[in-house]
């Protein structure tokens, strides 16, 4: 089990946030105890809620793809035939796991034609991104550039 060093103040703030999330104290009371604004408490609570993160980020991702569609209205639809195979390669990738700068673990993935990174905390992945590479593996294969969604091709 991983141990994370926290100050007493950080433990107290986490406790106030948990109580506010459970509803045993109000967000305003938690904010007063922590010495922050009500708005900041709401922001922190939202960050603790994974479905909220999805609801927040999905429209931004959709707009990103929509911009590509507007720029190339006659472009062919993206092929989905290689998605399952790509995900299988990501799943078989060799992980390099190190402590993250903050909480959790930094996971780097290198595999056959794929590279990626993830943040893992409390036995679940918080974030994962993976990309196709030039086919090389190891440290050289990990270097990849991020291109716009319309320019990405599954290999």
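^ Assign residues to that structure.
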């Amino acid at each position: 089990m991983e141990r994370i060093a926290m100050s007493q103040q950080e433990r107290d703030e986490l406790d106030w946030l948990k109580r506010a999330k459970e509803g045993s104290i109000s967000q305003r009371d938690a904010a007063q105890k922590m010495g922050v604004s009500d708005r900041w408490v709401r922001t922190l609570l939202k960050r603790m809620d994974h479905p909220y993160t999805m609801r927040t980020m999905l429209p931004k991702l959709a707009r990103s793809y929509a911009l590509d569609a507007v720029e190339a209205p006659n472009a062919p639809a993206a092929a989905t035939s290689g998605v399952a195979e790509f995900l299988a390669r990501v799943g078989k990738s060799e992980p390099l796991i190190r402590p993250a700068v903050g909480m959790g673990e930094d996971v780097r993935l290198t595999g056959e034609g794929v590279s990626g990174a993830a943040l893992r905390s409390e036995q679940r992945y918080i974030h994962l991104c993976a990309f196709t590479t030039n086919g090389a593996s190891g440290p050289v294969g990990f270097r990849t550039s991020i291109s716009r969604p319309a320019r990405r091709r599954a290999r």
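The chain has a mean pLDDT of 77.
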